[in-house]
Amino acid sequence: MKGSCNTLFITDKEMDMTKNIIGVFGPGNVSDADEEWQAAFSVGQQLAERGYVVLTGGLGGIMTAASKGAREAEGITVGILPGTRKSGPANEYVDIHIYTGMGEARNAVNVKSCGAAIAIGGGYGTLSEIALALKCGCPIILLKSWSITPHGAMEPPGLLIAQTPEEAVGMAVLAAEKGGF
Amino acid sequence: MKGSCNTLFITDKEMDMTKNIIGVFGPGNVSDADEEWQAAFSVGQQLAERGYVVLTGGLGGIMTAASKGAREAEGITVGILPGTRKSGPANEYVDIHIYTGMGEARNAVNVKSCGAAIAIGGGYGTLSEIALALKCGCPIILLKSWSITPHGAMEPPGLLIAQTPEEAVGMAVLAAEKGGF
Amino acid sequence: MKGSCNTLFITDKEMDMTKNIIGVFGPGNVSDADEEWQAAFSVGQQLAERGYVVLTGGLGGIMTAASKGAREAEGITVGILPGTRKSGPANEYVDIHIYTGMGEARNAVNVKSCGAAIAIGGGYGTLSEIALALKCGCPIILLKSWSITPHGAMEPPGLLIAQTPEEAVGMAVLAAEKGGF
Amino acid sequence: MKGSCNTLFITDKEMDMTKNIIGVFGPGNVSDADEEWQAAFSVGQQLAERGYVVLTGGLGGIMTAASKGAREAEGITVGILPGTRKSGPANEYVDIHIYTGMGEARNAVNVKSCGAAIAIGGGYGTLSEIALALKCGCPIILLKSWSITPHGAMEPPGLLIAQTPEEAVGMAVLAAEKGGF
Q1: CATH for D2-178 (3.30.70.260, 3.40.50.450, 3.10.350.10, 3.60.21.70)
Q2: Confidence class for position B153, pLDDT limits 50, 70, 90
Q3: Contact at CB, A78 and D96, closer than 8 angstroms
């Protein structure tokens, strides 16, 4: 943490802080035996090593995996929770808890707060975040996630598709540095 | 309107009002020369004829088409707007204007307020509403809309797919009467 | 209802529909033995008689009273609910149920959707709606409600204070017709 | 920062992270010549020195003052913004930018995410945050802020009123450690 803190907040005063958050979106119902969980852990770890704050929905599964990976690399993690302080805690690897109390409407907040995001695995909430990211101009990288095709098209839209955690992180960092689209 | 008013609000006091709204979701950038626009107009008309309130996002394209269809059948239309009274008006066929001022986060409100919904055409906002509907238990019928497939699956999930406006309306009415899933 | 329907939706096509909703805000924990409840019932009735849609938070107490008054005058009532279809129903006098699922954040939606609003009685939620109305440019009339004074001032800010339901309705209608501030 | 980082994230693993955020709410239109601005700066500084993350609405005036104070004490600052990345930046002293894109509805998020909060100065947005805090169970301390009295009461409700920044910080820390009400 000391390292990333220095990088983030002290040394690099000139860093554009509006670009320093990268999201990791994915379902809450996968376990650490799943390859998606392992991918999310690795993604979280790599993002923190590169000095990015890792933002998730704050709950279980992919969200826990990414937050745990970031924590182990001494990064800062943010969780944007659908519920309130009273309706239940975030996973234990979240540093900054934002309780929205607005249910799935918080998915739009997730997307708007990231310089780029990586979606891992499936789930309908994740699909909504992919769609909202595309709608709101947040670059989104898909890793083992949904395939989507518009009506009348043979091919899916020009999404960024990664095959490995390393590739996903590389694409996300590049997109965040470019400043969205 | 007189007819639907009587049906909705006066005669059938016992009707479950929590089931009386059906949503029509779709992009704002289609014109009345497009088949999706014509489909949405027809869907709005049929829903109003059957006594349903038609809820849309309140803007142009598919949203205007469905609202206009419902208006011509003397139905009541609701628009859940992303902006505020000051940021711009709804289309002229919306009766009840709900200004959320919350941007795309309002897509979750659209979904939660309908007994069932029909998605027509593409657009990323529409895809987010399909996903949020699936997430929140709002039955969603796709008509000339997205094809979505989860990671690792050969087939899309068990969505309700309609081929015609008539079929879409029939499916939506049936689903709304069942009370969601 | 037939009358108000005709007025609202059929005959007066030229009426500016963006001004046709007036809100009634107040706490959920008052009973029909309380003078605030009776005032809210009368306000709802008078607003409906004048052709306005009555918008409330959809729950009990003042919200039920205003909706019931409007229903008895054959008006249309809208309820903007903090919860979801699954978390609980609106009061039985609400025609159009908007389920936001966003808790108290829905108070901002209430305020933004009204041409003017009347706050009756106390409660902290009501105070937040008074403040948000003042912030968002929704004319707000106080009837048996909070007294608020900014720091350093001897007098409360220039709020519209009504002494009777009749006066409150008159002020709200006038403000809504003027189009906010 | 190094010190507070260690305190917050590394050394004190057992610290309850759900209680580590304290909010500072206040209007955007005060300048550093105003006593409220100086009070907010001092409050931000003291909160950071005690190891708390300082959460504000991310904009100017009181929000800038509190964030700047916290930054100078090497603390971490969070800004919950009403707009989006495209609609405008946070003040330069915000580390973690949460863009909600939901306008004043974000005031509810501010309140729900804090273990306690201090309101400084006036403004209607601030009054709404005071009310929402009281509604949502977030302990709220008033410093040079609104006076509010419910209908029929001679006295304001039992709010925590502080006379100095030191007293406000002491009350907020105590309340946050108690865990709300």
Answers
A1: 3.40.50.450
A2: confident
A3: yes
Mutate to test the interface with B, among D102, D106, D109, D128 (most CBs of B within 10 A): D102
Measure in Å the smallest separation between the Cα of A29 and chain C Cα atoms.
22
In chain B, which residues touch C (CB < 8 A)? Answer: 1-2, 5-6, 8-10, 17-18, 21, 53, 74, 76, 78, 80, 84-86, 89-90, 94-102, 108-109, 112-113, 136-137, 180
Instruction: Using 70 as the pLDDT threshold, list the residues of chain C that sit under it.
Output: 1-19, 180-181
Cross-strand pairs, A147: B149
pLDDT at C153: 83
Tens of pLDDT along D141-178? 999 999 999 988 877 788 999 999 999 999 999 999 98
Looking at the domain that runs over A2-150+157-178, which CATH code has it been given? Answer: 3.40.50.450
Whether D122 has a pLDDT exceeding 60, the answer reads yes
**Separation CA C70–CA C40 (nearest Å):** 10
In a 10 Å sphere around its CB, with 0-12 CB exposed, 13-18 middle and 19+ buried, how is residue D115 labelled?
buried
A134/B148 touch (CB, cutoff 8 Å), yes or no: no
pTM given for the model:
0.90
Query: How confident is the model over C70-87, as pLDDT tens digits?
Result: 999 999 999 999 999 988
The pLDDT of residue C181? 53
Q: Å from C82 to nearest chain A CA?
A: 9
Q: Rounded to 5 degrees, what are φ and ψ at B102? A: -120, 20
Angle at B41 between CA C114 and CA B138, to 5 degrees: 65
Torsion angle of the four alpha carbons C167, C170, C173, C178, in this order, in degrees rounded to the nearest 10: -100
Q: Given this model, what pLDDT does residue D157 score? A: 83
Say how far apart CA D155 and CA C45 lie, in whole Å. 33
Strand order in the sheet with D140-143: D96-99, D77-81, D53-56, D21-25, D116-120, D140-143, D160-162
So where are chain A's domains?
A: 2-150+157-178
Q: How confident is the model at residue A15 (pLDDT cuts 50, 70, 90)?
A: very low
Q: Which fold has domain C2-147+158-178?
A: Rossmann fold (3.40.50)
Bridge partners (DSSP) listed for residue A141: A118, A160
Q: Give the mean model confidence (pLDDT) for residues B46-58.
A: 97
DSSP letter assigned to residue B20:
-
Question: Which residues of C touch chain B, with CB atoms under 8 Å apart?
Answer: 1-2, 5-6, 8-10, 17-18, 21, 53, 74, 76, 78, 80, 84-86, 89-90, 94-102, 108-109, 112-113, 136-137, 180
Note the pLDDT of residue B8: 35
Chain mean position to CA D118? 5
Closest by CA to B69, choosing from B144, B163, B168, is B168
